[in-house]
């Protein structure tokens, strides 16, 4: 096993809190007390859901979240229609606004 893989796995595994070598001496006992107090302060239970903040995050949470729907496809088609009409107006219709072709 390479060093990088072992290093990656070591960050996932908590240190041995009750190791036999850490129980005997006073300085180790103080160190163990710090480790135990650190792990006691960690939050327990499932991670709370993150509330969407921006416009894109709210849209993503609404249409791609727990109940995904096909509404973004309809939104995309509508957007393309509006942009297509705007381009058609700019490049063709505006020249015929006041007189016939």
What's the topology here?
Layout: H1 3-12, H2 20-23, H3 26-41, H4 55-64, H5 71-91
Write up this protein:
The chain is rod-shaped, with a radius of gyration of 31 Å. It is mainly α. It has helices at 3-12, 20-23, 26-41, 55-64, 71-91. The model has no long low-confidence stretch (mean pLDDT 79). It has five helices and no strands.
Summarize the structure.
The protein has 101 residues and is mainly α.
Summing up helix and strand content along with how strands pair, one would put the structural category as mainly alpha
Please describe the biggest sheet, giving its number of strands, its sense, and whether it closes into a barrel.
none
Total of helices:
5
Gap from first CA to last CA: 77 Å
Overall 3D form = rod-shaped
Rg from Cα: 31 Å
Summary keywords:
mainly alpha; single chain; 101 residues; 0% strand
């Amino acid at each position: 096993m390479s060093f990088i893989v072992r290093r990656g796995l070591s960050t996932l595994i908590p240190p041995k809190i009750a190791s036999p070598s850490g129980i005997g001496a006073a300085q180790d006992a103080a160190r163990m007390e710090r480790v135990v107090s650190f792990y006691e302060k960690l939050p327990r239970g499932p991670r709370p859901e993150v509330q969407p903040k921006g416009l894109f995050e709210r849209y993503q949470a609404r249409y791609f979240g727990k109940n995904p729907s096909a509404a973004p496809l309809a939104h995309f088609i509508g957007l393309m229609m509006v942009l297509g009409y705007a381009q058609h107006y700019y490049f063709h219709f505006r020249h015929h606004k006041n007189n016939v072709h």
